[in-house]
Amino acid sequence: MQKLPKLYLLLIFLAFSAALSIRLYDLDDLPLDFHATRQLFSMIKARGMYYAMSPDLPAWQREIAIQQWKESPIIEPPVFEGLVAASYRIFGENLAIPRIYSILFWLLGGFFLFRLAIQASSLHGALLALLFYLFLPYGAIASRSFQPDPLMVMLIIIAAWAMWNWRETPTLKWAVAAGLLNGAAIFIKNVAVFPLFGLALALVLERGFWPSLKDRQTWIVAALSVLPVAVYTLYGTFIAGFLASQFGLRFFPNLWFDSSFYLRWKGQLDGIVGFGPLVLGVVGILVAPRRLAALLAGLWVGYIVYGFTFAYHTITHDYYHLVFIPILALSLAPVAETLYQKINPHRFARFALAILAVLAVALQLWDVRVTLARDNYRPDLVYWAEIGEVLGHSITPVVAIAQDYGGRLAYWGWQPTVSWLTDGDLNVRSIAGIEVDEQTRFFQLIEGKRFFVVTHLARFEAQSFVRQMLYDNYPVYAEGRGYIIFDLQASR
Q: How far apart are CA 301 and CA 89, in angstroms?
């Protein structure tokens, strides 16, 4: 990387300092501000691993924590959860720890994004890409979350940087580095294969298909990229069996023929990155030099194929678009360089642009602060602990219509749960053509259970079948602020 002027080094230092500071704000609040269901999934796993490592902790808590971990479905390899569990052993169980890790992952990704942008574009383009990546409000909130995505995004960026360097300097060292980093990103979360495969294919085609195909290094990169996830998938599917059920309700090609799919996809991107930056990102591909244009086009095509592959999640899970943030940030670099070349002779224009950039960053920081300060989730800990006390922390799961599939009750209430189907669950099964017999499912779920817990009262009111079934056949065991508990073993 070229030696940077001291002023730019200062600007970069200030940018990273501000990005870190805003993400550390309200760090000790409960992690319910961003996709709580997904975060609780990782929290339960990490706690179970930690308690399994810690025989000195209370026996009843160890039993419940380990059971909750063991009964959680396995999707991605629990690398992040294992890292957090090991850190709990050193620092104690503190939910700020996974947040700090995610923040550091995101910031390290920003460092390599800047390096890639400055190599592929220019200093001024790299600065804009970095500022967009660090201060996009959605990204700032998401980069505090306990889920594998911030780690995956970091590894995708570093892998893209290594792929670029391999294309620029096709040595065995860079080929191995690119392959290992691709493999690490895809292993952490296999959806990373889409942008990285698109990028690799674009660089291969830009160099020349047949020369690349004959190059031993191409096959080294390919083998190292797919080997870790291939071994994990084969083992998890055909040997251990824990992945066998994870491929259902994932693929919905019928949505491709519904115009609302595209409108909802656009709506997701509007809410995450904004329509203006999206358009400028497309312009960036058009004005970029050939090799950078190939890199950007490959990343965009990979993201688009990813969106079609996971069509339902594309329009319902906004965090599925986190991978697009660095892609768009990088796409803005050639736009920034083109603009800078136009205004470079005009000192006043350069000054005005700098002021505009500072104001934009300040507004984004304020937006993030307001979002983080808006909600205080700390009282939830006491609330869920209270319900857990009423239930007695039984090792036997309760059936629940509760927030986040019962995740809050499971974590802070120390109560294993199985969840009644939500409206979203019924909707996705309807799209897949699966009919649900509510009565059959009801009796399957309650078999051997003592309690049916309701804390999501609005959802309970909307589920007429289960509401009538419970009130007609089972007495209320306990009722309090925002919850109703039915006794399933004392039928009327």
A: 43
Of 120, 129, 122, 150, the residue nearest 23 (C-alpha) = 150
Domain count, the chain: 3
Q: Do residues 295 and 199 make contact, with C-beta atoms less than 8 angstroms apart?
A: yes
Per-residue pLDDT of the chain (492 residues), as tens digits, is 568 888 889 999 999 999 999 999 999 999 999 999 999 999 999 999 999 999 999 999 999 999 999 999 888 999 999 999 999 999 999 999 999 999 999 999 999 999 999 999 999 999 999 999 999 999 999 999 999 999 999 999 999 999 999 999 999 999 999 999 999 999 999 999 999 999 999 998 888 888 888 899 999 999 999 999 999 998 888 887 777 666 656 788 889 999 999 999 999 999 999 999 999 999 999 999 999 999 999 999 999 999 999 999 999 999 999 999 999 999 999 999 988 888 876 778 778 888 998 999 999 999 999 999 999 999 999 999 999 999 999 899 999 999 999 999 999 999 999 999 887 777 777 777 777 788 888 999 999 999 999 999 999 998 889 999 999 999 999 999 999 999 998 765
Same domain, 320 and 432: no
Which residues, at least 6 apart from 292, have a Cβ–Cβ distance to it below 8 Å? 120, 121, 333, 334
Tokens representing 185 are 């990103």
Q: How far is CA 329 from CA 131, 198, 411, in A?
A: 8, 17, 36
Residue at 102 is within a domain: no
Helix (H) or strand (E) holding 451: strand 451-454
Identify the domain containing residue 468 by its residue range: 379-487
Cβ-Cβ contacts under 8 Å for 102 (sequence gap 6 or more): 143, 144, 145, 146, 147, 150, 151
Render the burial of 109-119: b for 16+ CB within 10 Å, e for the rest. bbbbbbbbbbb
Claim to verify: residue 334 and residue 407 sit in the same structural domain: no
Whole-model pTM over 0.90: yes
Does the residue 437 lie in any domain?
Answer: yes
Q: What single letter denotes the amino acid at residue 464?
A: S
Can you tell me the distance from the alpha carbon of 97 to that of 251, in angstroms, rounded to the nearest whole number?
34
Cα separation, 49 vs 31, in Å, equals 19
Query: Could you please report the per-residue DSSP string of 276-328?
Result: HHHHHHHHHHHHS-HHHHHHHHHHHHHHHHHHHHTHHHHHH-GGGGTTHHHHH
Which secondary-structure segment (H or E) carries 485?
Answer: strand 483-487
Domain-embedded: residue 120: no
Query: Tokens 């736009």 map to which residue?
Result: 335
Q: What totals of helices (H) and strands (E) does the chain contain, helices first?
A: 24, 5
In three-state form (DSSP H/G/I as H, E/B as E, the rest C), the secondary structure along 199-222 is HHHHHHHHHCHHHHHHCHHHHHHH
Q: Which two tokens stand for residue 47?
A: 């706690």
